[in-house]
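Dear Dr. H.,

I hope your travels went smoothly. While you were away I took the liberty of generating a structure for the chain from your last submission, since the lab meeting agenda had it listed for discussion. I wanted you to have the full record in hand beforehand rather than looking at slides cold. The sequence, exactly as received, is reproduced here:
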Amino acid sequence: MSDSLEKIKSSLQHKISTQIKQKGAISFAEFMRMALYEPGLGYYSAGLHKFGKAGDFVTSSELGDLFAQCHASCFAEILPTISSPVIFELGAGSGQFCVDVLLALDELNCLPDAYWIFEVSGALKQTQQEAVKQLPAALADRVKWLHAPPDEVFNGIIYANEVLDALPVEVFRFKHDQYQRLMLTDEAGQLTETWDDFPADLSAQLTQKELQLAAGYRSEFIPNLSAWFASVVKNLQQGAVLMVDYGYGRPTYYHPQRHTGTLVCHRRHQANFNPYQDVGLQDITAFVDFTAVAEAMESVGLTVCGFTNQADFLLNNGIDKHLDADGEYQTYFQQVTEMKQLVMPEEMGEKFKVIAAHRNLPLNLSGFSVNYWQTL
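The corresponding predicted structure, in token form, is as follows:
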């Protein structure tokens, strides 16, 4: 490990230890927030290379432009139906999706008035700005970075790919007919798990899920998810919200066989299940309970109108029509390989889901002609 990485790791561990000493213990959610987002030290804040072959993982938009082309087809069903539309992307990663979708929408003669990005990582913001510079000026000038969700009323599309899985989660277990909250203490420099009662508000959020769990069952949930959605969509007057991530509906998420939870970490394209190693140097994620997402959307005045897997969403938005069968063989081969990664069940096709909701804009989107409401 390089000296700079070791410095990041030790500095972050010191901050976490200091926080524990001040409070006596911290929740897993607080640990995850610090590990991922602590300014200058967290995984998403320290400027480490995360995406692509040289990083820790590859997102759908990094594989090529087919993912963005299909989303552009979906967006083109929405944008012409509202006045002065914008696209507001949360956590834009490397910025490649923004670049590719604007180019595709330009081809479709269906550009938004503006493209806003809300990015909490200063390092990723710089990466995104470099990517956007490759666009023609007429497109690049539409892109604007925000320091917070819009403080003005707007119409348009709110979009997020692999954002929900990076929201800090509370870890719980069900024991003695009650929920217990995972807390972390520091024992001689080692993070140690312990269990405590949940505060009343978080206990209520768990109880409302009406789970039927065996003794010892361990899993996670995103706390205060409705409040998070409220902050994101508060000024959306008319438009749609689309979110893509890996996860399940609640019956599958909390299935008896999934009794150890869904937490997973990524570093250098290797998965592991130890969030306490290489703190600040690895990604920590949890699969998404899409039933909770749908409930949170509805609680803030959105109407959920679609839920499907990524394969059906992309196929129904014509991913096969974007293959350049008449072009060079190498290009066509690369596109076919990309499409397989995006839609095959053993790759991303079944694991990833797409959920859509609207506000004051009834929608019947082609991408959701196959709907999986029964899994929520």
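Two observations you may find useful: The CA atoms of residues 39 and 140 lie 28 Å apart. DSSP finds 13 helices and 16 strands in the chain.

With kind regards,
E. W.
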